[in-house]
Structure formats: C-alpha cells, structure tokens
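Milestone M4 deliverable, item 7.
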Amino acid sequence: MARKKFLRTDWRFHSKLGKGRKKKQKYRKAKGRHNKIREKMKGNPKRVEIGYKKAKKGREKEKKIISNIKELLKTKKGEEVIIARVGRKKKIEIAKKAKEEGIKILNLNIKKFLEKIEKEKLKKSQEKGKKEETKEKVTEKIEEKKETKQEGKQEEKKIAEEKKLN
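Output delivered:
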C-alpha cells in the first residue's frame, strides 16, 4: 500500500500551500475553531492520527553513525551504518575495514571510493616519476651548457693565443 498523504488545510486554494506544487504540500496540524479537517468532516483530507504507522517490516532499521574504526568493529555483519564527517585517511581505513567485515555504508559507495583512491595513487606515482625524469633532463641540460661554456672559453683562449703569435 502506498504511503498516506496528509495535506494542509486550504492546500487546494493557494499555490504557496501546494496547489500544483507537490514540494510545497507539507502537513500542518489543523487548529482552527471551525476547521473541517480538525472536526474530521467527510470529503476533507485525513488528519495525522494513531493507526497510520507502517508495519514493522516496512520500517527502516536503525542506523549507526560511525566516526572511527572502533565503532565500526562494534557493528555486526550485514548492518547498515553512516560515516560521520571524518577526514580522508580515516574514511579510507573505515571503507577498507567495512569491505572486509561485510558492513554496508549508506552514504558511501565503498567499491567506487576505493577504486578512485587507487587511481589517484597511480597518477601521483606517475607524476613523481615524470618529475624525477624532468629533473634528470634539466640537470643534463645544465651540465651540457657548462661543458659548452668551457669549450667556448677554451676556443677563445686558443684564438687569443694565435693572435698573440701572429
């Protein structure tokens, strides 16, 4: 059965209360003296009362908020948890441990998250290798320049000596 929709008084007359705008349809308790919803008159929207609650099967389980590995280890296999606002290092550790334990994290796709981190590590290592290569190339170029300068100075000395002899 679909969830019962409880509507506010006069919602069908005003746009700001939800006429043609589903997002604006929010329930507010009817408090007026002659209010038709409060008096439960026929043909008006239902009022929130005891008895409309879903069966236990349909309700969601309790979720734990986890901020470190110790709290994660207290949870059982198959339970659903939510990671609190934690840094990247802790998040990685928690995700790896949850994957091992078989615990589902609701606000994080473990597989996707760990793959993304691995890709970033690979990129960093490749960039590091490129940096080392470029450093080597730069040092080689500097050495070549020094050598060419020295060769040029030696040639100038030879030319100067030849001029003196002539």
